[in-house]
Amino acid sequence: MTRNDDDDDDDDSLDPIDLIVEDFTRRSRAGEHPSIDRYVSEYPGHADALRRLLPAVAVLERHSPRSTPRPELEPIDELPSLEQIGEFRIVREVGRGGMGIVYEAWQESLKRRVALKILPGPSQFAPKSRERFRREAQAVARLLHDHIVPVLSNGEHNGLLFYVMPFIDGPSLECVSSPTSSPAEHIRWVAQVGVHAAFAIEHAHSKGVLHRDIKPANLLIDSRGKLWVTDFGLAKLAGDVGVTSTGDLPGTLRYLAPECLHTEADARSDIYSMGLTLYELLVDEPAFPGTDRAQLLEQIHSGALLAPRAVNPAIPKDLETILLKAVAHAPGDRYHSAKELAEDLQRFLDGQPIRARPVGLVEHWYRYFRRNQTLAAMAVVCGILFILVAILGWMAVAAPPGPPGSPPRPPHPMRRPFFPDPRSRGILLLLALSLGFITFIGILRRMQSKGKKRRAKAGPPLSPF
To answer: Does 355 fall in a domain?
Structure first.
């Protein structure tokens, strides 16, 4: 087995089995016929793992869709076929992602249609990925809710980890249209979807499970119109450590809460993702429409999204208030639990007063400066300097006082104020301060805009995921 010397530095941090599997996959895709026995003899310390993993990798390579034709691999004895995994006969592939491939399958023993999820691609047969897959099954298995797709069973067949779920015959909210053509009814339908999804997420949180990847693609609608929350592939159990590497970003970037870029996610991060999902369903476009990773990162950092009513004026003010509270940039400004979000949505549907309150002008600017503390500090310093300059200027043009009991001494002609009336001077002072402050903010915003453009040209600040 040959390796490039240039890759040695990057490979030092990888598991040896990962490197072996990568080499096996690379040679298979190049049209070679790698022998499993040769790998076993070269790496006797990993013989058991290689005999278990490499046949499954070969099968996945055979059945993975490619844009260009690839020579068939050499037949290997006792390969599991993706036409049959244990008692499950594969019907078709339903979907795939970074954390799994989902198939529609027929369970022969119970004569029923099920969904079968297995680990994807050869590189996912690393110990860390297998442990993460098992934890996903454990996370979903502890959830029993009317709107969460449950786990029926799990197992391993010839090195392939899998678990079984009921088959949901219906599309995701990413590609489903509203069941009604009336704009008002569509708005109520989205609010009802939010109620069911938020209560389902609250149940998961109550069991110590964070979803961490809530988005329209992970909310399914079955043939009866019932909502199902699915794909807990990035779920985190309370108290888990060591499965997600430092620097890993959980979830889909477009729906990621800002704090997840720097700290651990919590229940309020799921609420944020839920708010962005409902926003997208209401206005029919993403809250953050960036087309590349650098743009999305900048938009998430700044929290700059349009108010829903600015995009769709038909959205009621109360519903907009609920959404804006759910997607507040700071976790402390959001709903404290998914249950609170669900209850406020239900109050909106019932025509009752909601608990959330619109953000006033003062609160808006307070939150803005809290997100931009450097800008806030500079604005305060600039304001203080303007006030000091104004006070000193006022003192310089004021007439000096005379002796006690004497009439006021007229000011020196060269020190006579341009506006002798105190009220006029006050108005002038306020105008000067306002103009200076607005100019200062404009300069800073221009500098900030230039910085964004430079960062976008420089590329994303985080490592790819």
So the answer is: yes
Same domain, 379 and 365: no
Please indicate, yes or no, whether residues 217 and 359 belong to a single structural domain of this protein. Answer: yes
Q: What is the mean pLDDT of the chain?
A: 75
Q: What percent of the chain has pLDDT over 90?
A: 28
Catalytic residue of the set 18, 213, 231, 318: 213
The tens digit of pLDDT for each residue in 90-129 reads 999 988 765 788 999 999 999 999 999 988 665 456 777 7
Shared domain check, 128 and 221:
no
Secondary structure of residue 101 in the 3-state scheme? strand
Lowest model confidence (mean pLDDT) among 47-56, 108-117, 346-355, 375-384:
375-384
Structural domain contains residue 75: no
The tokens describing 454, both together, are 């430079």
Do 341 and 411 share a domain, yes or no? no
Residues 378 and 287 grouped into a single domain: no
Range of the domain at 46: 5-63
Q: Over the stretch 141-164, which tens digit does the pLDDT of each residue have?
A: 889 999 999 999 988 887 788 999
Residues 220 and 119 in one domain: no
We report the CATH number of the domain holding residue 157 as 3.30.200.20
Mean local confidence (pLDDT), 195-211 = 94
Q: Which of 323, 354, 370 is the last residue of a domain?
A: 370
Query: What is the band of 8 on the pLDDT scale with cuts at 50, 70, 90?
Result: very low
* DSSP 8-class letter at 260: G
CATH number at residue 260: 1.10.510.10
Judge whether 213 counts as a catalytic residue. Answer: yes
Same domain, 232 and 338: yes
Kindly write down the DSSP assignment for every residue of 261-295, as one continuous string.
GTS---HHHHHHHHHHHHHHHHHSS-SS--SSHHH
